[in-house]
Design goal:
Elements lengths: L13 E5 L5 H10 L7 E4 L7 H14 L5 E4 L10 H9 L2 E4 L4 H8 L3 H12 L4 E5 L1 H4 L2 E7 L12 E4 L4 E8 L7 H10 L4 E5 L3 E5 L5 E5 L3 E5 L5 E2 L12 E2 L2 E5 L4 E2 L2
Parallel strand pairs: 1-5, 2-3, 2-4, 4-5, 6-8, 8-9
Antiparallel strand pairs: 1-10, 6-7, 9-12, 10-11, 11-16, 12-15, 13-14
Helix pairs in contact: 3-5
Length: about 260
């Protein structure tokens, strides 16, 4: 008789997810979470395709104004490999890693299979002092799968969405961003029908979710977080859906959460 598998320990680190948009209030939240505002912070711009140095400088200026002077730049690209020893040492020392927005496929391509990603995963799992945050693409990429295509009502048709693997630090989630502003309800509903074991998380701009060890996830910001759950469907045509035909489902649940609301996965 095989022994029962050992339960996976809950992560000890903190994750902060933002749906994009104006993010200075989130910088204030992150600064407040730090045990010491002089602790090293790293801005990871692997998703940023246009002037990543300018993006880093903007965040460094805001964080500096919040009393956080040590804000480094992890610019990972063809000229700055993720697994360079100096880069890994900075990742190991960072109290906070903030992943900027941009192109989430560029981010996952840069980090997939790297020691950098494994260190980030291990620190989130075991290091109570570690904070990982992401905005827009930087938030979406942390899920088990991520949406990279699907627009408007056509994303409820067969073949109307494009979903690819994420970084998997939050393996049970499928995270979408700019959610209300870009009318992404249809594509997230379709995506969770394709991956019903994942919880769909739609983050509006200036709005996000704070995940701390031993506590339920908490919504912060000005708008709405949408949770779409397909784990208890009673009927769907997804498995036999022809291209360009609309998907149907019964038993899909949708929750709308606002600042201060909490949710246990």
């Amino acid at each position: 008789m095989n022994p029962a598998p050992s339960p996976v320990a809950a992560p000890q680190g903190t994750i902060v997810l933002l749906g994009g948009g104006y993010d200075e209030p989130t910088m204030a939240l992150l600064a407040a979470l730090l045990p010491d505002r002089h602790a090293p912070i790293e801005i990871l711009t692997a998703a940023t395709t246009h002037e990543p140095a300018t993006t880093h400088a903007g965040y460094a200026r805001v964080l500096g104004g919040l009393g956080c002077p040590q804000v480094g730049h992890l610019q990972l690209d063809a000229y700055h490999p993720a697994d360079a020893p100096a880069t890994l040492a900075r990742l190991q020392a960072a109290a906070l890693v903030f992943i900027t927005g941009g192109n989430q496929e560029r981010l996952t391509a840069c980090l997939a299979g790297t020691q950098f990603l494994e260190i980030m995963r291990q620190r989130y799992q075991h290091d109570v002092s570690f904070i990982l945050a992401g905005t827009s693409a930087g938030a979406s990429a942390l899920g088990g799968q991520m949406l990279v295509g699907g627009r408007g009502w056509r994303s409820l048709l067969g073949g109307g969405i494009d979903v690819v693997p994420g970084l998997g630090l939050l393996p049970n989630l499928l995270i979408d961003q700019h959610f209300i502003e870009r009318h992404r309800y249809p594509r997230l509903m379709h995506a969770v029908l394709a991956y019903p074991h994942l919880l769909g998380l739609g983050l509006s701009e200036e709005t996000g979710l704070l995940l701390r060890p031993g506590q339920p996830a908490e919504v912060f910001g000005d708008e709405v977080v949408v949770i779409v759950d397909a784990r208890h469907l009673t009927a769907t045509n997804f498995g036999s859906l022809p291209p360009d035909q609309p998907v149907s489902a019964r038993g899909l649940t949708v929750d709308l959460l606002v600042k201060g609301d909490v949710v246990a996965w």
